[in-house]
Amino acid sequence: MGWALSYDDGKTWVVIKTLIRSCFRGAKKNANYTVPIPKGAPSGKAVFMWLWNNASGVRELYSNCADIEIQGQADGKLTGVVPLIANYGNDSLPIPEFPTEKQDDKHEAFDKRKEITIVGRKSKASGAKRMRSTEP
C-alpha cells in the first residue's frame, strides 16, 4: 500500500509513504493510517492518492484520490519515488499472490522505483505558484 501526492492533476506522483506486507494485517473494520505530509512539501492544491496492490486472492490494483490543499512552503520541494503500478493490465508488473512470508512479493520492484522531485516556485510576474517535476 502506498500514499502519494500530485501537484499537476495526477500526471506526476511522488510516494510519501509505503507499507509492504503489513498494510491490512490485523486491521479492524474501520482501519486508520497516519500519513504525514513531509515538512518541505510545496504549498498549493494537490491530489492525495492511496494505492494498494493486494497480496492474496484476485490480483488487482485498488486506488482512490482526494483533492487537498497543502500549507507548506511556497518554494518547497518533495522528493520520493514514483508509485509502483502492478496487476493493472498487460503493460504493468504482475505481482503473484504471496499470502505467506516465504512467497515472493516482488519486493525488489518496490526498491527499484524511479526517484522524482517536485519543486514549487513562485512566478515573479504574478505571484502565482507553478509546479515542475525533475527526475535525476
- By secondary-structure content and strand pairing, the structural class works out as mainly beta
β-strand percent reads 35-45%
Could you estimate the helical fraction of the residues in percent? Answer: under 10%
Biggest sheet character: 4 strands, antiparallel
Q: Could you name the ranges where pLDDT drops below 50 across 5 or more consecutive residues?
A: 123-131
Computed over alpha carbons, the radius of gyration is: 17 Å
Q: How many β strands by DSSP?
A: 7
Number of domains: 1
Give me the side-by-side strand order of the main sheet: 2-1-3-4
Report the principal-axis shape.
globular
Distance between the termini: 25 Å
* Mean pLDDT metric: 80
Order of helices and strands: EEEEEHEE
Q: Helical stretch count? A: 1
Sum this structure up briefly:
The protein is mainly beta. 4% of the residues lie in helices and 36% in strands.
Set down the secondary structure blueprint.
Layout: E1 2-6, E2 14-18, E3 44-53, E4 61-70, E5 77-81, H1 107-111, E6 115-122, E7 129-134
Antiparallel strand pairs: 1-2, 1-3, 3-4, 5-6, 6-7
How would you describe what is shown here?
The chain is mostly beta strands. The protein is about 5% helix and about 35% strand. The chain has one domain. The protein is built from one helix and seven strands; from the N terminus they run βββββαββ. A hairpin with a 6-residue loop joins strand 6 and strand 7.
